[in-house]
Specification:
The complex is a heterodimer of chains A (364) and B (446). By secondary structure, chain A is an alpha/beta fold. Chain A has helices at 45-59, 82-86, 98-110, 129-135, 139-142, 173-177, 190-202, 215-218, 252-267, 284-294, 309-321, 344-347, 351-362; strands at residues 40-44, 64-67, 91-93, 115-118, 152-158, 183-185, 207-212, 220-224, 236-239, 244-248, 271-275, 278-280, 297-304, 330-334. Chain A has 13 helices and 14 strands. A seven-stranded mixed β-sheet of chain A has the order 3-2-4-5-7-6-12, sandwiched between helices. Chain A has a five-stranded mixed β-sheet with strand order 9-11-10-13-14, with helices on both faces. In chain A, strands 1-8 form a two-stranded antiparallel ribbon. In chain B, 42% of the residues are buried. The longest helix of chain B is centred in the N-terminal third of the chain and has 26 residues, at 100-125. Classes of the chains: A alpha/beta (364), B alpha/beta (446). Chain B: Keywords: Metal-binding, Mitochondrion, Oxidoreductase, Potassium, Thiamine pyrophosphate, Transit peptide. Chain B: GO terms for molecular function: branched-chain 2-oxo acid dehydrogenase activity; metal ion binding. Chain B: Its cofactor is thiamine diphosphate.
Chain lengths: 364, 446
């Protein structure tokens, strides 16, 4: 279905450009992998999604895309042009019902179609929780591998956006991390987005793909127009360092990138930055190898700290790297509140909170 | 595709009737569809000069006085039947006129199911299997509908449709293997008894959560439609499961997305202990169909020919017209909900006996057969003995088999074995080796 996997030929990227003032600066992010030679186009994150879906519909006649408002192009323009190009039987609106969207998607996948379901905001995925956890995740296991819905991919916009408040800002990955049988994947930019989304679509397990909505327009890179995949369950060391390991995913990678620069300039501290990319099943080896080297770990996510995915990483790392640790593992996360509206600047784990946590790690 | 037509909908006809008499007449349900253009539903073109309402959301006339539509649950949607309770054909033109061989097959499948149910229910009582659910009284719904389908049609069930699988040829050994969770179980011992599945027979593996299969069936039917290979999907569920949100989702999706799908509701009077008057207040499940724009019918579920006729026609049209059909099969759950239930706690023995003795799908078919001299007392005696022997042999064999290898606890979580699970499996075996006297290893395959 897709062309070659990645080669290490060096980065070819312009860098992520900010189109408006946000809580991070994304210039100069290096991609530590190569992609196949061939034409690239400047794409933002939502265009990289469209490109992945376009490649899929072109090469897989069973592929269908559905959800609320996808027909006209989607509320975030991820599906613009696809219905005209591939037909109304392949790109279509469903009634307003997330449990129906996912249930329908599971059934289509069971019957052999490549089913790509869109949930309009990750905040609205919960009506589909039963279908995801009790059905999709368990389909293959409970049937003794007679049936499966591996052809199902669920996409949803994710994370803070500046003004989203309780119901347009959530990062629900921790709820799904507790569910064996599904995969949960989160990209940090357009190049990763297209490659990881194509991997999710190709993967023979039901996958949930969360797209950082604040990056839909803000993140712009040169992205290959042809299909390519980035492996799942492989964390990426974006920047090597010796003193502190920083782990995050999605938008927060850009925050930590800046924090790493600040730490270097102001504290002379060398940070190793890891993008986890796949939350479930997660790459314990890469993270533990890094912490064994640095002895210090900071994990950061927007989702509330209690029961957030940083807790799982922290627990595993202390089991496997206990004697390597020079300081307690730091988690810089959202507070244990619903995601607030006017208080967002105080709520989010911004670069100052992360920088301060590094200072404490170093001086422990 | 449906073409522009001017059939007035039922509500149109009856809005006049309502003004004179209260309640909707439960006449033959005719639906109006807004006209279709290339299969896509369009509202009437906007024309502000018209007196008719121009709202995009509904196609209707204006009415100038206040009147609420009264739902009619006293004279609800009528129950289609072919045979009376004594197995006599009422309207000869409705007799499907199946061959003697086919009818005998119906009878033998229903009774074999009944025999298997008796033996497996007992086996749970004796502690041989952990759990069981019988199908007593509902055999007609299984066999009648299964016989009307093509073997390639995909079946999504709830948990009380074993007869569908039996009709398609699932062997007794495999029923038993699943209930015993032994090494022959196609499901690899992972689920409770009666959670059957068969890829070869196009019967999707049962799961415990109710109604989850309903929107899945809509998705599968949509995929089947795109494949264009004349394949239908049938989705079974009970009247209790029909209260779940997933049921609403499935009905709405199948109608809006034009899926070749048969929804088959077994309305057996109870959801565990909850009778229908605590489950819904409307006219059962069939009356919900028109609300979704769906073709609907109510049938006598204990009349195997009525079930057969309705399913056959629904299947033909669902595929030809790419629209869903809702069949509500009225029946009665003669047995307890499961081996974890004692239904004498919430219903009278008299009520159960009535259905067992006076209106049973197996007896009604037998009367049909004996009236044609297709089945004698001797045939009955000999078949009872033979079917019991078949079931007992499968049962005794299943009991002796080992359980599956414990490695199978860790596979099929994902398509591939993940590093995490490899480590956990190794840890489990290290532990079990060290503490082996506390684990029942002898019962499991080596």
């Amino acid at each position: 279905m897709f062309s070659t996997s990645l080669l290490r030929v060096g980065s070819k990227l312009i860098g992520l450009l900010l189109t408006r003032k946000g809580h991070f600066n994304t210039l100069g992010l290096r991609n530590d992998f190569g992609f196949p030679p061939g034409p690239t186009t400047k794409m933002n994150l939502f265009q990289s999604v469209t490109s992945a879906l376009d490649n899929t519909l072109a090469s897989d006649p069973t592929a269908v895309i559905f959800g609320e408002d996808v027909a006209f192009g989607g509320v975030f323009r991820c599906t613009v042009g696809l219905r005209d190009k591939y037909g109304k039987d392949r790109v279509f609106n469903t009634p307003l019902c997330e449990q129906g969207i996912v249930g329908f998607g599971i059934g289509a996948a069971v019957a052999g179609a490549t089913a790509i379901a869109e949930i309009q905001f990750a905040d609205y995925i919960y009506p589909a929780f039963d279908q995801i956890v009790n059905e999709a995740a368990k389909y293959r296991y409970r049937s003794g591998n007679l049936f499966d819905c591996g052809n199902l991919t669920i996409r949803a916009p994710w994370g803070c956006v500046g003004h989203g408040s309780l119901y347009h800002s959530q990062s629900p990955e921790a709820f799904f991390a507790h569910c064996p049988g599904i995969k949960v994947v989160i990209p940090r930019g357009p190049v990763q987005c297209k490659g990881l989304l194509l991997s999710c679509i190709a993967d023979q397990n039901p996958c949930i793909f969360f797209e950082p909505k604040i990056l839909y327009r803000a993140a712009v890179e040169q992205v290959p127009t042809e299909a390519y995949t980035i492996p799942l369950s492989q964390a990426e060391v974006i920047q090597e360092g010796s003193d502190v390991t920083l782990v995050a995913w999605g938008t927060q990678i850009h925050v930590l990138r800046e924090v790493a620069n600040m730490a270097q300039e102001k504290l002379g501290v060398s940070c190793e930055l890891i993008d986890l990319q796949t939350i479930l099943p997660w790459d314990t080896e890469t993270v533990c190898k890094s912490v064994a080297k640095t002895g210090r770990l900071l994990i950061s996510h927007e989702a509330p700290i209690t029961g957030g995915f940083a807790a799982e990483i922290s627990s595993t790392v202390q089991e496997q790297c206990f004697l390597n640790l020079e300081a307690p593992i730091a988690r810089v996360c959202g507070y244990d509140t619903p995601f607030p509206h006017i208080f967002e600047p105080f709520y989010i784990p911004d670069k100052w909170k992360c920088f301060d946590a590094i200072k404490k790690l170093i001086s422990y | 595709m449906a073409t522009l037509n001017s059939i007035k909908n039922m509500y149109g006809i009856c809005s006049h009737a309502i003004r004179q008499t209260t309640g909707l007449r439960a006449a033959k349900l005719i639906q109006q569809r807004a006209f279709r253009v290339n299969g896509a539903l369009r509202q009437q073109p906007f024309d502000s000069s018209e007196e008719k309402p121009q709202f995009p959301g509904a196609s209707a006339e204006f009415i100038d006085h206040l009147e609420f539509i009264q739902p009619n649950v006293i004279s609800g949607i009528p129950v289609y039947r072919v045979m009376d309770r004594a197995g006599k054909i009422i309207n000869p033109s409705e007799d499907p006129q199946l061959s003697k061989e086919q009818v005998l097959n119906f009878y033998q499948k229903m009774t074999l199911l009944n025999t298997m149910d008796r033996i497996l229910y007992e086996s749970q009582r004796q502690g041989r299997i952990s759990f069981y659910m019988t199908n007593y009284g509902e055999e007609g719904t299984h066999i009648g509908s299964a016989a009307a389908l093509d073997p390639r049609d995909l079946v999504f069930g709830q948990y009380r449709e074993a007869g569908v699988l039996m009709y398609r040829g699932f062997p007794l050994d495999l029923f038993m293997a699943q209930c015993y969770a032994n090494v022959d179980d196609l499901g690899k011992g992972r689920q409770m008894p009666v959670h059957y599945g068969s890829k070869d027979l196009n019967f999707v593996t049962i799961s415990s959560p109710l109604a989850t299969q309903i929107p899945q069936a809509a998705g599968a039917a949509y995929a089947a439609k795109r494949e264009n290979t004349n394949r239908a999907v049938i989705c079974y569920f009970g009247e209790g499961a029909a209260s779940e949100g997933d049921a609403h989702a499935g009905f709405n999706f199948s109608a809006t997305l034009e899926c070749p799908l048969i929804f088959f509701c077994r309305n057996n009077g109870y959801a565990i202990s909850t009778p229908t008057n605590e489950q819904y207040r409307g006219d059962g499940i069939a009356a919900r169909g028109p609300g979704y724009g769906m073709m609907s019918i109510r049938v006598d579920g204990n009349d195997v020919f009525a079930v057969y006729n309705a399913t056959k026609e629904a299947r033909r049209r669902a595929v030809a017209e790419n629209q869903p059909f809702l069949i509500e099969a009225m029946t009665y759950r003669i047995g307890h909900h499961s081996t974890s239930d004692d239904s004498s706690a919430y219903r009278s023995v008299d009520e159960v006996n009535y259905w067992d003795k006076q209106d049973h799908p197996i007896s009604r078919l037998r009367h049909y057969m004996t009236a044609r001299s297709w089945w004698s007392e001797e045939d009955e005696r000999s078949w009872r003995k033979q079917s019991r022997k078949m079931v007992m042999e499968a049962f005794e064999k299943a009991e002796k088999r080992h359980k599956p290898h414990p490695d199978l606890m860790f596979s099929d979580v994902y398509e591939e074995m993940t590093p995490n699970l490899v480590k956990q499996k190794e840890a489990m075996w290290r532990h079990v080796q060290q503490y082996k006297e506390h684990y029942p290893l002898d019962a499991y395959a080596k």
